[in-house]
Amino acid sequence: MQTRPVLRSSTTAKVVDRLMLGLLWTLALGFIAVLLLFVGAILKQGWPVLNLGFLTRMPETLEAGGGIKPQLFNSIYLVVLSLGLSLPVGLGAGIYMSEYAGRGRALRFFRLCIETLAATPSIVLALFGMILFVQTMGWSFSIRSGALTLALLNIPVITRVTELSLLAVPRDLKEASYGLGATKLQTILKVSLPYAATGILTGLVLTAGRAFGESAILVFTAGTNVSAQFPDFRWTVPGETLSVHLWYVTSDGTLPDAREIAAGTAAVMILALLILNLLVRFLDRAIRRRTR
Amino acid sequence: MNQPSDSILGDPLSIAVLPASTQVKPGPSDFRLSRLHRLADRWSHLLFLGCSLLVVALIAGILVFLSSKGLAAFLPLSGNTGRTLGFSEVFLSADWAPSNDHYGILPFIGGSLTVTGLALLLAAPTGILTGVFIAKLAPSWMRTLMRQVMDLLVGIPSVVYGIFGLTVMLPVISRTWLKDAPASGFAVSAMILAVMIVPTIVSLSTDAFESLPQNLDEGAQALGASRWQAIASVLIPAAGPRLITAAVLGLGRAIGEAMAVQMVIGNNPQWIALMRESTDRAPFLRALFTPAATLTTELVQELPNTPAGSTWNNVLFAMGLMLYLLTMLLILATRRLGRGAEA
Amino acid sequence: MLNPKTPETKPVKLSVKDMHFSYGEKKVLDGLSLDIHAERVTAIIGPSGCGKSTFLKCFNRIHEVASEVKVGGDMQIDGIDIYRGGIDVVDLRRRIGMVFQKPNPFPKSIYENVAYGPRLFGVKDRAALDELVEDALRKAALWDEVKDRLKESATGMSGGQQQRLCIARALAVSPEVLLMDEPCSALDPIATAKIEELIIELKEHLTIVIVTHNMQQAARVSDYTALFWLGRLVEMDLTERIFTTPRERMTEDYITGRFG
């Protein structure tokens, strides 16, 4: 054999290594900075506007000084309604996929459908809701059109979370239940679902957050107006939410204090998001404590 | 309802282990499942199946309803108030002037592709690198912190991103770099979109790197590779297909995003005119800060102003249908990629 | 037995004195001292969790990949402190190769796997690479099986072939020491036999340290055997003696299967 080539460790590699590690840290810290800047700017802009009056006054259409009381109410009302509509479907589909669909083609097909629905842009769901509920059913821009369309956004998330939480239930727990002669349904209802409940709840809170922030769907289904009464629980009235309001006041431009209203609304939404996030982390910790 | 489980749970093993024949006494009758339970068990799965089928029906329903409107522009249907269009004058024309009966949507397709491409150009490399950082390099406190940061970023509503762009980024950029000329256009939209899709890419690529066998980068380093060399030459290629999947799903989110982009992009495809007429040698940079429009922003902008059944309205729905078909295509593409990764 | 009864004593290649290792709060190795001779196979045995794998990973400092570890004491290769500041870790890892418990070929072609190391060290010339790859594959007794499919993916090979590929990959940068961390634990008996045969061939030019939980394997391939227990060295001696006339009671108990 001839002389072997010289193996030399390269100093460039070491320099590049240092540089790239530095870059990765910078990148990560950069994202933290972006988040802080973002939340900071929104809260700073909204802070002067935020007070109890802002949250509890009715909005104005042409003059300054309006509040966001009905929008806040509609946001929560629509989130609750849409969760109520999507929870049974999502739970049922999640249970089917984890417990009944097996591991074959059926499961793959259902998963494909769930993924597709999850990836469908909300503007597309909005168009669907507009054609079906607003026009074909003749429900016009209303709470019910909004809630039903919003449910489409929630269903895939709840299904996925239910399926994953149920798959995480220890097998011996289920087997113990079968061993006692429990039926499959009893096992699911009394053993698996309670075990998976915290996980599903976490998913629900996340879903609520998403629905709370959704705007494209609601612009085209729940409309950009609010009922003159408060509180108005009827599902036939239009139901502008906080996020739609935020968008509408900035793009419409009839309000003299549109900037302030938008800033205040954005701050309220960020605060709500932070609270939901804390809730999720609390639930998450509860899950981890139990599985440990 | 709870006798069968509760009464036996006290001593589960003794019952569970015994073969059926040795169960001495056939328990008292209240141990037996009621008829109701058995019926419920037999039929309940149909209920669950129904829920799953509802999802399938929704997928199909969206397609049918969107097609009914979107294809109406091209078919002589009874509800149409406008004229019937040919495919080429819609999809292959850049002439969008609905009031003059011109319906070329290329400006919006171009706008969507440009803004999505730019966003992906920003978000894919940074997201993948952040993913590898979280999975392989960050100390555990940093890992937890980054996950929380990404959770928050993904949770921020798109209108709030939009308002940030509108009230912070646009004025600042216009003041500092553009001599107070308006800044709306691709650049700011793409930056905002990038931040919106980065959490998706980060979390999927973190998963991709974490699911690689742990001793793969040890193997590279044992041969003398630096940490970065191990990442660049072994880990990233090994996670390749899943990283592409992450980018594709990010792309899907970006192309479908409407509100945030609508608030900062200017909503008028002026960039096309700029590119056509500009005498600059490099109009691209200026085009980035010139108003533009995308498929989604045009929908948000014009749908409320067009009467149902008009050609204009139908063309807008055709744009929505396009977005939906594109989503399906992207999902199928990720499936294909996933299968490639397993093989 | 394949190993000679009393091997001629070779110079000390690796020496360890009063070595400590802790992982976070947990002490893993505590006051270890032993010498490893050149061109000999040293087996390290002991119950799982006794720190034998950790010990191995200290030689090429690969544990630094993981995280917060503290190493104390003295580890030397050819009289040079492995943990001295300023030592070139990359060069250290070139001199001390490693084969892992589970075969970990890179998801690249067979050729690229073996060429990976030489490329890191700046070999770009195609002919030189070809030669290094062939040479390494021959030494790992894999050449004849793969010479017609060098471009195929390494992940399609059998487990035993993958492990021999990993050995070839380590040999391609001409190391002086080869660390093997239970290299056969994921393999079937036939593949195991091939690897053992290979180990005995390789020791002609290499110092080999092999961690194994399989005492028959230690007896078959090694010249020296060390028994670890709870992070301490119980006894180290010629393999022959360890398995026939151990000095320590604990060694005898372990060898005869009375604990562990």
Task: Report what the structure shows.
- The complex is a heterotrimer of chains A (292), B (343) and C (260).
- Chain A is mostly helical and 292 residues long.
- Chain A folds into 2 domains: 3-49; 52-291, MetI-like (MetI-like fold), CATH 1.10.3720.10.
- Chain A has helices at residues 11-46, 52-56, 69-100, 105-119, 122-136, 143-167, 171-179, 184-213, 216-221, 242-252, 258-291.
- The longest helix of chain A has 36 residues, at 11-46.
- Chain A starts with 10 loop residues before the first helix and ends with a helix.
- With 343 residues, chain B is mainly α.
- Chain B has a domain at 105-305: Orthogonal Bundle (MetI-like fold), CATH 1.10.3720.10.
- Chain B is 71% helix and 1% strand.
- In chain B, α6 (140-155) packs across α8 and α8 (186-210) crosses α10.
- Chain C is α/β, with parallel strands linked by helices.
- Chain C has helices at 52-59, 89-95, 110-120, 126-139, 143-146, 159-171, 189-202, 215-221, 239-244, 249-255; strands at residues 12-23, 26-37, 41-45, 69-77, 80-81, 96-99, 177-181, 207-211, 224-229, 232-238.
- In chain C, α7 links the parallel β7 (177-181) and β8 (207-211).
- Chains A and B meet through α1, α3, α4, α5 and α6 of A and α1, α2, α3, α5 and α6 of B.
**Run of helices and strands of chain C:** EEEHEEHEHHHHEHEHEEHH
What is the highest CATH level, the class of chain C? Alpha Beta
The CATH superfamily of chain C appears as: P-loop containing nucleotide triphosphate hydrolases
Low-confidence stretches of chain A: none
Shape of chain A: globular
The CATH class of the largest domain in chain A: Mainly Alpha
The CATH superfamily label of the largest domain in chain A reads: MetI-like
Helix share, percent of chain A: over 70%
> What would you call the shape of chain C?
globular
Task: Please report the total strand number of chain C as a whole number.
Answer: 10
Number of helices of chain C: 10
- Sheet-strand content of chain A, in percent, reads under 5%
**CATH-defined architecture of the largest domain in chain A:** Orthogonal Bundle
End-to-end distance of chain A, in Å? 59 Å
Stated plainly, the CATH topology of chain C is called Rossmann fold
Provide a count of the helices of chain A: 11
Mean pLDDT of chain A: 89
CATH topology of the largest domain in chain A: MetI-like fold
CATH architecture of chain C: 3-Layer(aba) Sandwich
